[in-house]
Amino acid sequence: VPMVAPGNVQVHVVNSTLAKVHWDPVPLKTVRGHLQGYKVYYWKVQSLSRRSRRHVEKKILTFRGNKTFGMLPGLEPYSSYKLNVRVVNGKGEGPASPDKVFKTPEGVPSSPSFLKITNPTLDSLTLEWGSPTHPNGVLTSYILKFQPINNTHELGPLVEIRIPANESSLILKNLNYSTRYKFYFNAQTSVGSGSQITEEAVTIMDE
Question: Taking every annotated instance into account, which residue ranges of this chain make up the domain Fibronectin type-III (predicted)?
């Protein structure tokens, strides 16, 4: 098997889900056989928005021939990763380069995990929601938009409310009685808005 590890491993983080890794080629005489390529082992050490880490799943990408760089796609935003590089010949892999640590920046969050609308009265509705399963960063706020739907399914004016990220419920007051409303709800990080969930609910006709 090859005798030495690739040197001078460098990681350039392109965005929240993509990184580029560079390395110096090993001297050909240390390959001790036919140079097949280089393997990059990489794994997520932790999510920066959650402490828990269940099992470390190592991923491997193989770059054929004498390439000295490669792209690592499909990374998770706002996470800490480690990687190392090994050279490969027909017999197997050489030793690993020292582990290199890199961090991905924040991304936009996934949609809130649920939106539930309860306690209809003449002029109010209560909204409850769950935080996104993948915050992909530090949540800065939630955005709620809503509008009435009249009997001919036309949409009325859209109202937008920004809600602090630590809230999980809201009572909407001063609504019209016996009116159907459509709600659009999403979470935000400093990078931008995540995908929204929609829901409809009706205020009651009379007490």
Answer: 5-107, 111-207
pLDDT digits (tens, 9 = 90+) for 46-87: 989 876 666 788 999 999 999 999 999 999 999 999 999 999
CB atoms within 10 A of CB 41: 17
Give the distance between the most distant pair of CA atoms in the chain: 88
Residue 206: predicted pLDDT? 74
> What SS3 class is residue 92?
coil
Closest CA to 70 of 22, 30, 17, 35: 22
All domains in the chain, ordered by first residue = 5-102 (2.60.40.10), 110-200 (2.60.40.10)
175: phi then psi, degrees, rounded to nearest 5: -85, 170
User: Cα–Cα distance between 198 and 158 in angstroms, integer?
Assistant: 14
Helix (H) or strand (E) holding 83: strand 79-89
Q: Which residues contact 22 (CB under 8 A, 6 or more apart)?
A: 8, 9, 10, 11, 12, 68, 69
Are 58 and 41 spatial neighbours (Cβ–Cβ below 8 Å)?
yes
Question: CB of 126 within 8 A of CB of 169?
Answer: yes
Buried b (16+ CB within 10 A) or exposed e, 64-96: eeeeeebebeebebbbebbbbbbbbbeeebbeb
Amino acid at 43: W
